[in-house]
Each structure stands twice: as structure tokens, then as C-alpha cells.
TrEMBL record:
<dbReference type="GO" id="GO:0005524">
    <property type="term" value="F:ATP binding"/>
</dbReference>
<keyword id="KW-0560">Oxidoreductase</keyword>
<keyword id="KW-0408">Iron</keyword>
<comment type="function">
    <text>This molybdenum-iron protein is part of the nitrogenase complex that catalyzes the key enzymatic reactions in nitrogen fixation.</text>
</comment>
<keyword id="KW-0500">Molybdenum</keyword>
<dbReference type="GO" id="GO:0016163">
    <property type="term" value="F:nitrogenase activity"/>
</dbReference>
<keyword id="KW-0479">Metal-binding</keyword>
<keyword id="KW-0067">ATP-binding</keyword>
<dbReference type="GO" id="GO:0046872">
    <property type="term" value="F:metal ion binding"/>
</dbReference>
<dbReference type="InterPro" id="IPR000318">
    <property type="entry name" value="Nase_comp1_CS"/>
</dbReference>
<dbReference type="GO" id="GO:0051536">
    <property type="term" value="F:iron-sulfur cluster binding"/>
</dbReference>
<keyword id="KW-0535">Nitrogen fixation</keyword>
<dbReference type="Pfam" id="PF00148">
    <property type="entry name" value="Oxidored_nitro"/>
</dbReference>
<comment type="similarity">
    <text>Belongs to the NifD/NifK/NifE/NifN family.</text>
</comment>
<dbReference type="InterPro" id="IPR010143">
    <property type="entry name" value="Nase_comp1_asu"/>
</dbReference>
<keyword id="KW-0411">Iron-sulfur</keyword>
<feature type="domain" description="Nitrogenase/oxidoreductase component 1">
    <location>
        <begin position="65"/>
        <end position="519"/>
    </location>
</feature>
């Protein structure tokens, strides 16, 4: 007897969006509809997407809090600053090494405080009577034990609610020590709609208290800063390897494998290269305004993107021998990549992916999937603003809302003695005319296929509904989504901290990624997953009415 074949249903993008919204109450559905966009892929006709707004209460979001963005993301990868969480121990533990940031402290005199979890461990009595004395004691203890170059203090929700003045304590202790920079971050978890506010708060304070503190000249003919790269799984090591081969000096990375002196010397670079636009674009603007360093958008995720970014750096400096050296490095690295991807594509061609990751990762990683012949069906960010989706041309029209006003605005002007434009206006104009764009990011939307779904602040319910309808071959997101997606029988790749593996950046990283995705998408293990009630129907409940 022949078995009936299961009829495949082709879903139109509008039907998918309608199905996802159907379960919400009308008011919630109207709000979420503005954050779920069908990409029309037509110039000047793609509707704007709503982003950087509060998550609707009751929805299980994929986002993190402001404190997580400040302490965990930006300062977490910095090895020689003692980072003290002023708050309950849970907050400090939550932000401790959870992103798998790697560092190399093997040099003489190098310090590494990342393995430590520093916290004031606030308890009930501290909430009632205040925790400023306890904070001062913790700073003193850290100074006595480690004598670090800097101590940073991070405020958590209870601190903001009771009014502890961490900045006054920091100033007092800095004056007391004399040889240790002490500064604080008002990064209470509720301060913004997502971790994006924490990135902004962290970078503002680093710029205010650290950048420009070290005026020693740095060696190197082609000096850059790499902004928005966090050395997860060793990504920064691979990028630094490539830069070194090309003869490029990386003065400072914000903030993977970073040190206090890197931040303090960042104004000595001649070009800023921005990786994660959302977490760092304002630092690039401030470095240009104060010190005259222009910036370009780069992407070291994907072999072709890495090569393109190196060529952009070569074009900026304009030295013929330097450009030839970059081309030689690319030519030496590409054969191995081409051999691996040719093999992998025989098994991954035509497969599909979804990505809901913070920063620019949901955009950058599409290049790697594309190199494998895979298609991205749907993507979005956890904490983006509209310019991350639509491009920087929308920035002048963005309205500042109440949540954004919680972030301290710092006024930056040209430094009286150290402002030095690296290129003349004529040189910059000539480079622009030749195709090198400064202060430019076109966003995620232009690179997405027509009809694809772009979703801001995707939540647990929507993620499961998308998987149910579109059945992707792989789903990429964060730790909170990992297990629920795997239970649906779909392999899940954690792109916030990689879980394991890496690096995935640069040339060697691309090879690692090809092999990892090949293994995941061609493994059948998750398709064998069955929930207990599917394996044992007798577990299903029945109701008896008397």
C-alpha cells in the first residue's frame, strides 16, 4: 500500500508575517508588525523598519540589558582593567567570561584580570543603608591586591534605584591613589531598551577617561584601529595575523584582546576600521572630530569580505608596494580557502539559514553562508537602530526618544594641540571618487533577497514559528534560543559566543566556519529529536468532569 506524500505548502512572505502576528492581541500585533518587514528590494520603496524600541512586556525577548552591553560586551575583553560590578553577585557572575573573549597576556609584565569576577556583592542591608562605603572598600582592596593601571565600576539596577553616586566614589579614590585611573559607568540594566545603550555608555566613558592618555609615538607605517571586534573564539587573533602579514600595525582593538594602553594610544592611528557598526560607530565619529582620524566600514567575516577590507585599507594609504604586499597575502591565502569551499559546497549548496544576532553579525555572516552557496531566509538584530538596517543616510531623520536621552551625551571638539587631519579634503574627495567611502554603512536591508523577512527584536515565539513554517537547515542566534530550536529538530549555531570552536573571522576562520556549518547542516541527529509526549502518547492528559 502506497504511503501518501506530504503536501508541501509554499508560504508567501505576507502570509508568514500574518501567521506570526495572528497569536498576538490586536494592540501588540500592530506594534510588532512595524518591526517585521518584508524586504521589497526596490530602491526607495522599502518601507522603514521600527527599531530601538522597548520590548513589549510579556514577550520573551532575545535581548540583553544595558549592564550586559557595558560590562559584558565592551569591557569584558579588556584584560588589564579591574572591572568591579557594584551590585548583587548574580549580575557580576552573569557577565563573567560568558562571551568566550580570548586574550594573550604572554608578554613581559602583562596582566590579565579577566579570569577574576569582581563584585561588591550588595545585600539587603546595602540596599537599605547605601553601598558607597562598601564600594570604596572594594576599590581599595582591588588596588592593594593588584595595583592595576585602572579600575572600572559598573552600576547595576539596585544602585540606580537607591542613588549610590559611583562617580563621586571613583573620583575620590582616583585622587587618593594618584597612579590608578578610576572611573564609573552608569549602566543600570534598565537604562535603555537593550544592551545597545550599554555599548554607548561604555564607549563614551572610555573615550572620556582613557583615550588620548598616552602620547608616546607608536611604530609602524600603516597604523589603524580596529573598532567593534571582540576576539570571540580568537577572531581578533586571526585578524591580527593577517594585518601583520600585510604590514599593518593595529594600534588598538575596541575591545577584543585589549589593554588600557591600547585605548590610551588610539589617537595615534591614521585610520579607523569599523567592524560592528552598532556597538562602536560613535567612537569612530568622536576620534575623527577630536583627532582627525577618518573611518571606513570593514568586514573580516568571510574570505571575500576580508580580501575586500584589506584592499580598502591599501587604497586609503595609497602606497603601491603596500598594495602589492596585500595582494600577495590574499593570493597566498585564497587557494586553501577555495579548495575547502569547493568541497563543502557539494553538500551545502542550496541549503538555508536564519540569523538573529546582535551587532552586525546577522549581516556579516551572510557573506560566509553565501560563499557556501547557502541562502539567508530571514535575519535581524537584537539591538539595532534603523541605520543598521537601512543605512546611515537615515540618521539625520531619527528622533531622539526618552530612552536614548538616558545616555549621557558628551561634547567632543577638535583637540587644541593634537588634532591633525590624516588626509586633506582634496585627498579624501579623490578617494571617495575612486570608490572608497568614508563614514558610510548601507545597512542590512540592501544585501537581503527580495521577499526575505527582516525582523527586529525577534522573540522566542516568532523564532519557533519561523522554523515551523520555513524549516531552515540551520538557525543562528544566542544561548537563550539554542535549546528550543534544537528541540524543533534544527541545528543551532550560537553566534554570540560560538559555544565552542572559532575563530570564524579572516581567512583561517572562514575555513573553520565552512567545515562547522557543513557538519551541522548535514548531521541528522536533530531530526531524530522527539518530545516525550511524541514518544509516549500515554503521557498526554485527559480531563474528567464530574
Amino acid at each position: 500500500m502506497a504511503t501518501a506524500k506530504k503536501k508541501l505548502v509554499k508560504w508567501e512572505p505576507t502570509d508568514i508575517k500574518e501567521e506570526m502576528l495572528k497569536k498576538y492581541p490586536p494592540k501588540v500585533a500592530r506594534k510588532r508588525a512595524k518591526q517585521i518587514m518584508i524586504n521589497e528590494a526596490l530602491e526607495n520603496e522599502t518601507p522603514e523598519i521600527t527599531a530601538n524600541v522597548r520590548t513589549i512586556p510579556g514577550i520573551i525577548t532575545m535581548r540583553g540589558c544595558t549592564y550586559a552591553g557595558c560590562k559584558g560586551v565592551i569591557l569584558g575583553p579588556t584584560r588589564d582593567i579591574v572591572n568591579i560590578t557594584h551590585g548583587p553577585i548574580g549580575c557580576g557572575f552573569y557577565s563573567w567570561l560568558t562571551r568566550r573573549n580570548q586574550t594573550d597576556a604572554s608578554g613581559e609584565g602583562d596582566e590579565n584580570y579577566m579570569p577574576y569576577c569582581f563584585s561588591t556583592d550588595m545585600e539587603d542591608k546595602d540596599i537599605i543603608f547605601g553601598g558607597e562605603k562598601k564600594l570604596a572598600a572594594a576599590i581599595q582592596e582591588a588596588y592593594d591586591l593588584f595595583h592595576p593601571k585602572a579600575i572600572a565600576i559598573f552600576a547595576t539596577c539596585p544602585v540606580g534605584l537607591i542613588g549610590d553616586d559611583i562617580h563621586a566614589v571613583a573620583k575620590q579614590m582616583k585622587e587618593k591613589f594618584g597612579d590608578c585611573n578610576v572611573f564609573g559607568f552608569s549602566c543600570e540594566g534598565y537604562k535603555g531598551v537593550s544592551q545597545s545603550a550599554g555599548h554607548h555608555i561604555a564607549n563614551n566613558q572610555i573615550f572620556k577617561h582613557v583615550v588620548g592618555e598616552n602620547d608616546e609615538e607608536k611604530p609602524g607605517e600603516y597604523r589603524i584601529n580596529l573598532l567593534g571586534e571582540y576576539n570571540i573564539g580568537g577572531d581578533g587573533f586571526e585578524i591580527d595575523r593577517i594585518l601583520k602579514l600585510c604590514g599593518i600595525t593595529n594600534i588598538a582593538t575596541f575591545s577584543g584582546n585589549s589593554t588600557y594602553d591600547q585605548f590610551a594610544s588610539a589617537h595615534k592611528a591614521d585610520l579607523n576600521c569599523v567592524m560592528c557598526h552598532r556597538s562602536i560607530n560613535y567612537v569612530a565619529d568622536m576620534l575623527e572630530t577630536k583627532f582627525g582620524i577618518p573611518w571606513i566600514k570593514v568586514n573580516f567575516i568571510g574570505a571575500e569580505s576580508t580580501a575586500k577590507s584589506l584592499r580598502k585599507i591599501g587604497t586609503y594609504f595609497g602606497d603601491k608596494s603596500f598594495i602589492e604586499k596585500i595582494e600577495a597575502v590574499i593570493a597566498a591565502e585564497m587557494p586553501e580557502i577555495e579548495a575547502v569551499v569547493a568541497d563543502v559546497r557539494t553538500r551545502t549548496e542550496g541549503k538555508t539559514a536564519m540569523m538573529f544576532v546582535g551587532g552586525s553579525r546577522a549581516h556579516h555572516y551572510q557573506d560566509l553562508f553565501s560563499e557556501m552557496g547557502m541562502k539567508t531566509l530571514s535575519a535581524g538584530y537584537e539591538f539595532a537602530h534603523r541605520d543598521d538596517y537601512e543605512g546611515r543616510h537615515v540618521i539625520p531623520n531619527l528622533k531622539v526618544d526618552a530612552d536614548s536621552r538616558n545616555i549621557e551625551e558628551i561634547t567632543v571638539e577638535a583637540d587644541d594641540t593634537r588634532y591633525a587631519p590624516r588626509k586633506t579634503e582634496a585627498e579624501l574627495a579623490a578617494l571617495e571618487e575612486g570608490g572608497l567611502k568614508f563614514k558610510e554603512y548601507e545597512g542590512l536591508i540592501p544585501d537581503m533577497d527580495k521577499g526575505s523577512l527582516i525582523i527586529d527584536d525577534c522573540n522566542q515565539y516568532e523564532a519557533e514559528k519561523l522554523v515551523e513554517i520555513l524549516k531552515p537547515d540551520i538557525f543562528c542566534a544566542g544561548i537563550k534560543e539554542k535549546y528550543s530550536i534544537q528541540k524543533l529538530g534544527v541545528p543551532m549555531k550560537q553566534l554570540h559566543s560560538y559555544d565552542s570552536g572559532g575563530p570564524y573571522a579572516g581567512f583561517k576562520g572562514a575555513i573553520n566556519f565552512y567545515k562547522e556549518i557543513d557538519r551541522l547542516t548535514n548531521s541528522k541527529v536533530w531530526s531524530y529529536m522527539k518530545a516525550p509526549w511524541q514518544e509516549s502518547p500515554e503521557l498526554s492528559a485527559t480531563y474528567v468532569w464530574e
